[in-house]
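Below: protein 1.
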Amino acid sequence: MKLIDLHADTITAMYYDNTNWQVEQEFILEKPILNLDKNNLHIDLDKLKQADSLAQFFVCWLNLKACEKYNITAWDLFVKQYNALQNELNKYPEQIQFVRNIEEMNKAHQNNKISAFTCIEEGACIDNLDKLVIAKQMGVKYITIVWNYESHIAVPAAVNQAIGLKKFGFDMVEEMQNLDILVDVSHLSDEGVRDILSIAKKPIIASHSNARALCSHRRNLTDELIPQIANNGGVIGVNCYPSFLDDNESIIKINNMVRHVRHIYNLAGENTIAIGNDFDGFHSKQPQLDEIKHIGDMPKLKDALLNDGFTYQQVEKFFSKNVLRILI
């Protein structure tokens, strides 16, 4: 069964020594120290093949506070990570290919290549709408509106759930939809998600968010917002970060992922669920105990969903077809 994973921080994590986890290395080093073909992260080419990956969405994660610390603009950090990803992809042209749209993805698949989309996690690198046009030309497929810091665009869940988009945020969302750049509401406040749903004319995504009813993390989606995203035609990428799966759990347990899929399914139906693991965006405390240790283990989730009573056709939607529906 083909897999599309909506969210991975692998390009940032490739700057880090996984045996001595040192964050902010993407600011200090000129280029990554790990390679994409084989590494000790959640994602590499071998693991993507084990997962039967059709496409992987790689995000350029931009830490605004660290940008201030290292005196670099968020846009320049995005360009640095974007170029690093391109350099890695260019090393393995027979196995993986950078793509901008579903047509290019289909061509890559016909040539037995995995597709790589690039995305931005932290919209604050966009300080004028002209930059959105440049991002589109560069092939950016989605932009996560905010990360964990308030910006000129919006307020994140980490700051205040009751305050949403700012004036520029409304303008930015409308222009993103005009340009067919997907709007990602993961990390955004509840009010911000409502704001976007009030103006969205095309499907939005929550690239890596679970259900708050099952795990109280502020980053998860409420039972109010989940069906509203479904009504918009959007998709929600269930992730495997333990802190988003269970309030009392520190390891990845497959049954917890199944619980979140089942809950979202009960609220929103089979056309809303996708996979957005947030791989390489977290560091497992006890990786040897994780039931899903990397993306190559995703067939285990497929089997667990089938055993839970979902049909093959439904799981196929969760693993790829719901994302294919909204890709342009």
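Below: protein 2.
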Amino acid sequence: MKEESIDSFPCIVTDTSFIASYVLNGFTDDEFPDCVKDIEYVLNNNGQFYVPPLFWYEIENVLLYKTRAFKSNVSGKKKTILSVSDAMDIMYDLSQLPFYTDCQPDTQIRQRIFSIAKEFNLSYYDASYLELSRRYNIPLKTYDEDLLRAVKKS
């Protein structure tokens, strides 16, 4: 499916990079704030975000990672981007959004994911988002460069 505007689609497949940019907007300065428009469009038009089951592991791993201390390039001191409390609040907020978590894929779907991964040189994980987008014929939103290339070629 070609990348397209969601103006006529109140539903989108969204990967972790897209939702992470939305929920971390304001916590970090390296996120992409333009996702807010698309997220709000879906919310304001009673749409849904379609995700494969692995999305929940990926997004919560992102939140976990952001709670871990790292050395600041500016001060050299250890700091975190999110407190554990902030991460828990974000997890709760995510649970209130209209996500449709696709079923556990059967053999046929897993084979399609595998074929897509091979065709576009994607990870199996990333290919699962593209397969979901194709299967439901709805746009895929991502900031992953490899996945964006595959979407444009589809």
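The chain has seven helices and six strands.
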